[in-house]
Design a protein that fits this description.
The structure is a homotetramer.
Chain A: H1 3-17, H2 21-27, H3 34-60, H4 67-80, H5 84-93, H6 108-123, H7 130-142, H8 144-153, H9 162-169, H10 171-185, H11 189-221
Helix pairs in contact in A: 1-11, 3-4, 3-5, 3-6, 3-11, 6-11, 7-10, 7-11
Chain lengths: ~230, ~230, ~230, ~230
């Protein structure tokens, strides 16, 4: 396995996901409004809260024996710490009255993503989590059309897009670091296969989360109640 | 919330699942063969291996403070210990040459189910896992048509169905115990909502596992390679 | 290594401990009173609360792969569940007004014993904890003189000695089970050495706990304040 | 509670420890030789290997909710990562042929210290581990006489003292950071009491480790065998 093959697999999976009927709907003019974005920010808050934690968890393992890799994990965890507050900040700037205490609980699919990331961080090969970072850091290039739709299509102000803009900017730097780490620390066939499995697995679970958010939005459009009480 | 409402929710979800197009295909005469059952046993081995462990995990928690409930968890874990060997035994009796060491690794959806069960056992309300037991112990009444198809439709011999037959038999006894435990130990609104969330969540993740097994079977029918090398 | 050598080592360590100057003082007529016993019950409550939990923890490990041993751990955990309440019950029957909520926190040495037992249950060889059970189940034969002193010397009533009397009775049965388990499940040199290390380690830490209780008692006799406020 | 009182308590405990008969022996001209230092480096390797890990563990907790404190933990863990290799390096420069794989296992007292630090990092108040950092970072001022004895008394070369010299240098900087963190993050009475308890507890367990090293050295002087085979 090589990083080129990993990348080819990622592009193949992304290509598949881009044909999702939900995505078409989302990009259809007039279908969505800022409440979908609000719901998404809420779930983003929930999983982001755990990202630095499950990243740090890798560094606590007795079998994370490569000192340079252990440092990478801690540095990366440090950079991710507190990013959930950006999602909350954006939600407030979107005009909703929420706080850490009044936010609805995570959706089942968000909880599943969180569970999976802790699980692989604790029990798979210590390098496996790089498979998540690999696509997560690069995802901002794929979601450009979505971001454009948010700002142009439904008029989300810049001050409510700090989470995405910030992450797009630190993108280039991080992508390079993750690629370098994969080249440096992923050696055996089992390691490569763990990285690939986690890349695909976490991507699918993230897509499921986005699909459940979309379903909730459709329920809301139909006038049904959801757990997002703050949307009124 | 009451156990009657929990049951109504379960029946509603089961009703939904029974309309799955994959299930229709499976029950269609001549479509499936014993390789589908073999794949399913393989995944059953993988998640069952963890069931006693995540059940015991609940008993290790400092905040599992009800002594009677702690005893229930340990007794239940004790009863589940080693059941994965029945699935392996059935796989062998089906005519396949497998062992603990040569079994293919779990599918991504199986791994996700396992991750979720550990997650809720460690981090949700201590009683949350009862939501999984609630439907799992009762599932055998729902899957009777599937079992009939296995034995009559594709001629799986009785000696390769010990896992299901055994679990159907201990069914009645366990169902009662789980119901009694729910009545005894689930008190607050948060507890009830955790039980319901885990019931639905683990049911959906189990269905996803069955769907992925079905997809793998379809790949095999089309002559593509799968990770189930033992199927030849 | 054999169980005979393990036993010889235990007797050697017990012999050493029996020459402790604190023990001499304790057995000296008129030196101690029931407050020492009350302090000891309080610490017994604290570590016993964790015994079933750290025993169950062994069964949750992925590398506890022997099914019979896993069952032993769960059965043993089940038998230990809730025993801390006997210590609390004895404390009340001794005439003190305490409850789970008003009990003073564990001493530093009690906390250390608890930390050690979780640590070895999670990270040493899965069979290592048998080293703790080995001496703990047999300790009641060694502490007979102490128990006699409690009842005859300082007049502790029978109803305040249920923890010790109960454990003395289940002693014979358990001792046999633990010995049988050691013979059955401890195989490699590393396993034997882990069992021996944990036997000696947990014995020493338990002795330290008893020494700290004794120091606290001496402070109390000198009129200094301790954390055992319920002693008045 | 204030940091001044914490400091007063530390000085009181240090004062007590400085009257240890073992310490007197160690400082007695001609009694010790570089084998004692080698044994100590070996145990230092073992507990230091876990320091960054148990520090990072604090940051993985869901209830470590203060983002600034979480960052402090990760930064501190990052700075500690790999320091065990300095101890190993010093051991080699002392003239002994050892490697990560051939090093003897930790002493029982070293294992206990490690167990305690993981325990409090996972289960005490999230700020409790600051109590360990507080004295550990400042310990180098207390052990100056010991270091002088090492270099002047038994002629340990500078190149075999990198662990201590390095830590003495980063001392001033870290001490300030830890004090600032205590002032910033330790608020409630329970937090202060957890910090104090961990300060005293970890100091005592470290002293016990040094005492066990000393006992092992005495055994060696008497010609008895120890687990430090590399000493010849």
């Amino acid at each position: 396995m090589t990083i080129e093959k990993l990348n080819a697999r990622l592009e193949y999976e992304m290509e598949n996901l881009s044909r999702s009927p939900n995505l078409e709907k989302v990009l259809e003019p007039g279908f969505v409004d800022k409440r979908l974005y609000a719901m998404y920010l809420c779930e983003t808050y929930h999983y982001t809260l755990h990202n630095a934690r499950n990243q740090a968890l890798v560094a606590t393992r007795r079998d994370t024996s490569n000192i340079q890799y252990m440092k990478y994990c801690l540095k990366h965890a440090l950079e991710e710490t507190g990013h959930e507050m950006m999602a909350l900040h954006d939600l407030k700037n979107l005009g909703f009255d929420v706080s850490v205490d009044t936010l609805p609980k995570p959706l089942m699919s968000t909880e599943t993503l969180v569970a999976y990331l802790y699980h692989i961080s604790e029990h798979f090969s210590p390098v496996a989590r790089l498979g998540y970072s690999y696509w997560a850091e690069r995802s901002y290039e794929f979601i450009q059309p979505l971001l454009a739709m948010l700002s142009d299509g439904i008029g989300v102000p810049k001050k409510a897009m700090t989470f995405f803009n910030e992450h797009s900017e630190i993108d280039a730097k991080h992508t390079e670091e993750v690629e370098e780490s994969i080249r440096r620390f992923v050696k055996s066939d089992e390691d490569w296969s763990a990285v690939e499995e986690v890349m695909v697995g976490s991507l699918i679970l993230t897509t499921r989360m986005m699909d459940e958010v979309f379903d909730q939005f459709c329920k809301l459009k139909e006038g049904k109640s959801t757990r997002y009480k703050f949307l009124g």
